[in-house]
Amino acid sequence: MQWAVIFEPATLQLYFKGLWSTFAMLAGLLLAGGIAGVVFALMLVSRSWVLQRLASTFTYFVRGTPLLIQIYLIYFGIAQLQWVQALWDTVWPLTHFKNPLFCAMLAFSINHAGYLAEILAGAIRDTSRGEVEAAYAMGMGRWQVMRRIVLPSAMRRALPPYSNEVMQMMHGTSLASSVPGLFELTSAASKVNRDYYLTFEAYLFAAALYLVVTFTMMGLFRLAEKRYTAYLQPHSH
Q1: 59-94: per-residue pLDDT in tens?
Q2: For the chain, percent helix, then strand, then coil, each to nearest 5?
Q3: CB burial readout 105-144, b (16+ within 10 A) else e
Q4: Which CATH class is domain 3-231?
Q5: Which Pfam families does this entry report, sorted A to Z (predicted)?
Q6: What is residue 146's DSSP assignment?
C-alpha cells in the first residue's frame, strides 16, 4: 500500500479536477435530458397514437441497450461517419460531433431522457382523478390542467424513483472515460494507475469519492422528498 502518493497535493488536485468534471457532466445531462424527458413523457400520455408510438419506441431502445453501447454508437459510430466528418466544419449541428464531450453528453442526455420519460409518464397516469376533475370543473383546459395540476403533482410523486435515476447517471458518467480526450473522476484514477502503478489505491480512492458524493446526494433527495411529498405520508392520530 502506497497511500502517501494518493494524498500528495498534485494527485489530490487531479482527483478533484476529475470530480469537478463529473459534476459538470451530471448537471448538463440532467438539464438537457430532463427537458427531453418531460417532452417524451407528455408524448407517452398524449391522445395521439403516433406520438405515443414514437415515444415508446425511443424509451424501449434507450432502456433496452447499455449506456456504453449508446456512447459508442454516437462517438465511434455517428461521429466517425465520413459524410458527418466532411460536413462538421460547416453544417450545424454536425459541427458539434467533432467534440468528444458533446458526443458523450448527447449519449448521457438521451439515456436520462428515456428513463425519466417512463418515470414521469407513470406518475402522470397515477394522478388522482379527483384532482383532474376538480381542475376541469374550475374551467381549466387540457393543457392548463397538465401544466398547473398534473405535472407538478407527478413531479413530486416521481421524486423517489427520479433520485435513483440521478444516482445511476452520476455513476454512469464514469463511462465517459471510454471516450478519448475526456477527463472525469474515473479517468483521474486511471491516470494515477498509469503513472504510479497503484491500481488498488487509485480506484479505491475514486470509489470512496463516489460513495461520499452518492450519499450526500441521497441525503439531499431525502430532504426534498420530506418537503414535497409530505402530504402523501400516512398521518398518525
Answers
A1: 999 999 999 999 999 988 888 888 888 887 887 878
A2: 85, 0, 15
A3: bbbbbbbbbbbbbbbbbbbbeebeeeebeebeeeebeeee
A4: mainly alpha
A5: BPD_transp_1 (PF00528)
A6: I
